[in-house]
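Appendix B, example 12.
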Amino acid sequence: MYSSLSNSFLQLSVLPSFGFLFDIDGVLVRGKTPIPAAKTAFQKLVNSQGQFVVPVVFVTNAGNCLRQEKADQLSQLLGVPISQDQVVMSHSPLRMFKRYHDKCVLVSGQGPLLDIAQDLGFCQPITIETLREKHPLLDVVDHDRRPNVLSPSAADLPKIEAVVLFGEPVRWETNLQLIIDILLTSGYPGNPYHCENYPHIPVLACNMDLMWVAEAQSPRDNLMTDVYGANLYNRYLEENSRQGSKSWVQAKVAGGRGPAALSQDEEIDNSWENELASAAAAHCRSVLVCTGVYNPHTEVPLDTRASIAEMVFHGHRDFRFEPGLVEPDHIVPDVDAAVDLVFQLENFAPY
């Protein structure tokens, strides 16, 4: 996808009036193998000193590492210097969830979870393994890991006030059991379940998409994240341009989904709008490449309405499914062709 920038971004700048938002898997790499077209494309995006001639940001559903590690991986794979400020990961938006940063949160996923959580601003993260050590009797599916002796008391463990899902875990049974226990006991997993515990403590899911192609031969096809997200972001930018930075909050109240006056908690929850208000982007156009999960040779069903109705919706439950948002603005063979297309559309010559 690529984004057109507003005039305010260009007042004192010689940068072009657009930039690129690159997905990674299936666009630039397949697993750990660079796609040949990616290196060709990036030769057009940097000058002889290795500096980018247009703004470039990498967006990924991955959440199992720090931004710096992902930047280092990309630099090595693509042969160009990339900084962590150019990387947006699935957990990056959690920096704006400041109301949870001073609370004890349970983190689930893979990789250096505590380092990731603390880098995002969380002061009291605890892992599934720590929770399991404190409450060993809750995790008994694996017979080989059942405790022989009881562990020390978990009285020193504070109430867990939110659950953060960075990505898919390795031991699903352990993670699911302990997370469910946390939700059903309102943050005290050693207690009996409550009869009525809804709404439960918040679950912050960074990435609900478990479909990616990597180096597998069979496609794992989900346009409900990248293309859908780009088109949805474009709609947000257009609405924001027409109605102002508080359009989302105003629409929520005017649409009958909230009270006439927002509560204090809602004002805190919506404070992230202030951080997005200064976005320089005016539009976001989606460009679908054919090197990932998308297969351009798949036959289109005759009854498209029936196929859409039967499609599993992998989007967030707060987003209603709209077939038009799955349609990309452009379809190209690979990322090199995508760069050429954007340069042509923007009438841009890098040299």
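Residues 6-13, 247-264 have pLDDT under 50 and may be disordered. The two ends are 22 Å apart (CA to CA).
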